[in-house]
Amino acid sequence: QVQLVESGGGLVQAGGSLRLSCAASGRTFSTYTMGWFRQAPRKERELVAAISWSGGRIYYADSVKGRFTISRDNDKNTVYLQMNSLKVEDTAVYFCAAGYRIAALITQEAYDYWGQGTQVTVST
To answer: Which of 38, 54, 70, 91 would give a disulfide with 49, using CB separation of 3.0 to 4.6 Å?
Structure first.
């Protein structure tokens, strides 16, 4: 069982930055692929970024490439999402998710554990 707790969300002006953190419980964090998803009102949940258990493979959605950076610290059982140059359309609830050694980073159904989410609101 893995428990995930997100933090770092908030209200920021367009063009600003936020860093989300996701702290995971358990001693096997380094064996889990981690993903950041988001869901805006009246929209489907989408994968924003994902990182393999070793950190060797990373995926970004086209909408965030060049602006967001995902990273992980296996010693701290934490995955991060640095979000720069935020846009109004980035407003959503952001969720952290974990899946055991997922090979296909973009497969939502493969992620077994989910956090409660943290709200990110970008204003004009």
So the answer is: 70
pLDDT one-digit tens code per residue, 55-73: 899 999 999 999 999 999 9
- Residue 113's nearest CA partner among 94, 123, 100 is 100
| AA letter at 8 | G
| Residue 27 near residue 9 (C-beta atoms within 8 A) | no
Around 60, how many Cα atoms within 13 Å sit in the side-chain half-sphere? 13
Distance CA 12, CA 42 (A): 21
CB 68 within 8 Å of CB 80: no
Which tens digit of pLDDT belongs to each residue from 91-123?
999 999 999 988 888 889 999 999 999 999 999
